[in-house]
Give the backbone structure.
Amino acid sequence: MRIIAAVGAAVLFATSATASSLLHPIFGDHAILQRDAPIALYGDTKAGSDVSVTLAATTRHVRAGADGHWQISMPAMPAGGPYTLTVRAADDEEQVAKDILVGDVFLCGGQSNMAFEVRGAENAQADIATSKDDGLRSLTIKTKDSVSALSSFANPVSWIAAAPDTTGAFSASCYFFARELRKSSHVPVGMVVAAWGGSRLRAWLSEGGLKAADLEPQDRPLLALRRTDPDAADRGWDAEWEAWWRARHGAGTPPWSPQFDASAWKTAPATLGPWAFWTGKSPDGFVGQMWLRSEVTLTAAQAAQPATLDLGMVTEEDESWVNGHGVGGTSGLPQARHTIPAGVLHAGTNVIVTNIFCSWRNCGLVGPAEARAVRLGNDTSVPLNQPWCYAQMADDEIAPQLPWGPAHGVSVIYNGMIAPIGPYGFKAALWYQGESDVHFAPAYERTLKAMLADWRGQFGTKLPFVVVQLPNFGPRPDRPSESAFADIREAQRRVAISDPRSDYVVTIDIGNPANIHPTNKQEVGRRLAAAVQRLLYRTDAPTGPRPDRAIYRNGNVTVSFAGVSGKLVSFSGNPTAFEMCGAAGGSCRYVEARLAGPSTITLLTGGPRPTRLRYCWGDSPVCNLSDASQLPASPFEISVR
C-alpha cells in the first residue's frame, strides 16, 4: 500500500492522527524543526521493517523495532528551508511532508491564559490584519486527557502559518512572543501549543515524574487501578475522599449518611442550576464546594433492579453517595452517572447525597431537571424530583480531586497531550499556569520543579523554561494578609531563580482585578521574548528590579535589588507595598520605604526585628517600584539577615 501525504500549497493542511503513522503526525506539511541540534524523527510501521528517511539532501536508514516503532537522528541543520521530508518503508509505504522549515521551536503550555486566543486580546483586529508571516507557524494540540500515555495525538494536528485568516485562533501569549522574537532572531519560529483551561499542574506531569518527586502518593495507584478495574478504582476513591473528610471532622455522623441531621441545611430552588444564582455569591471566582442532598422513593421491585444514579450535568466534579454508600465521582462529563452496587437500594426512602467541587463558574447540578433520575435495569427511570437541600463547605475546605478527572487529575493531560509529542526538538518551553492551583499552593513549588525535570526527561536535559508569574486578580489588599495567588507567584519565582536554565516574567501590573483573563497579551509576549533573549541569546534585555538581599541594621532594613536598569524609580511618591513579617506564619505590617541609592531601598521597621520581607503581596496589590525600563519590580518574599 502506498500512502503519500497531501502536498497542496494550502497552509491549513491538517495531518490526521488516524492516517498512516509511518511518520509521526507532528512532522506534517509546513512543520518547523529545531535548528543547530540533531533532529529526532520517528513514526511507526510494520515490525522489523527497513525505513529510509530523507530530509533535504541527507538520507539515513533505520530498522523498526519489534513494536513497529522507529526513530532516527538526522544531522543538525542551520535555519532555512523550505525542505521536503520523505520516509519510505516496506511494501512501497511512503509518506512525504513538504514546506518544512528549520528555525526555533517553542512549546507553549499552561491553562486558559495560555489558551487565550489572539482574537480576544487588546487591539486584536489591527494585529490580526498585519499578521501575515509564513516564517511564524503554530501547531495546537487539542485538549485530550487519558489514563494511559498515548504515543500519538488523539485528534488531527496541523501546522498553520500566521495570516489574517488564521492568527486570530492562535494562543495570544505565544503568538505575540513569537512575533516579538522574530524581530531580532530573523529565523523561522514555530509554536507548539498545549494548553487546557482550568487545569491543575499535577495533570501535566507523567506518572514517573510524580513518583520521582514523591508527589500524589495516594492518587497515582488509583490512576493505575483505573486502567484495569474502574469499579475498584471508584471504591478506592470513595475511601480516600471519606478519609479526608473524617480527618478534618472527626468520627461524627458524616453528611453522606442517611442518619445525618440535615435539618439546618437550606432548600435549593426546584430548578437547581448554578448555585451562585440562589446563594447570592458571584458566579465568577473560586467558589469551593457544596453539599446537596435529596431523596427518592422506590418500590421493592424497583430497588431490586440494577440501577444507575444519573445526576445530569455537574459542574465540575462530584463525589456521590446512595444510602451512605459511595458510588464514585465524575469530572467534566456531559452527564454524571454512577453505578449503584446491588443491595444498596431498598424499598421506601433512599437518600442521595453529592458533594460538588467547582473552581470557576456555573457550579452545581446545572442540567435540566429531567436529566436527574435513578435509571433502572428495565429501561425505566424514577426522577429525582424531590426537594434538594444544600450546605456550603467552609472556604478553606477543598476536598481531594478525582485522580482521573480531565483537568485536575494526575498525569491525565500529560498522557493525552505531552506524551504524544514524542522527543520533538524545542528551543525552550514557555509556561503560563497556576490559577487552578491556588487551593493547593503549598505544593506548587515542588510540583513545578518536578515538571521541569519531567519534561526535560522527554525533550532534553537542557530544555530551558520561562514561567509567567500570575497577574493581579481579585481584591486589592488594604492590610497585610495571606494570599494564595501571592504564594503561587512566589513559588514560580523561586523555581525560576533556582534553575540556571529557567527565568520568569512579572505580570503583576498588567492583569485585571475583575477578570482572570487579562487582555494585554501583547505585553506578556514582549516580556516572554525578552526573557528568552536573555536566557538563550545572551542579550541584556531588562528584567525589572529583582530582590537580592535584605539586611537589618540599626533598626532599619536595607533592601538591595539586582537586574536594575539605570536606577530604581518609585511612581507617585515613596515605594509602597513593603511588609515586614515575623517567623513563618507570624503577622506582617506595612512599613515606610525610601529610595536609598540606584539599587537599594531603606525600610523603616518601627517595631520588632523582622525575619521576613514581603513586597507586592496579595491578590491584586498596588505596587509602584520600577526602574528605567519601566518594568515592575518582582513580587517576592525573602528572609531578612
In short: The chain has three domains: 25-207+410-536, 251-392, 546-639. Residues 251-392 form a domain with the Jelly Rolls fold (CATH 2.60.120.260). Confidence is low (pLDDT under 50) at residues 1-20. The chain has twelve helices and 35 strands.
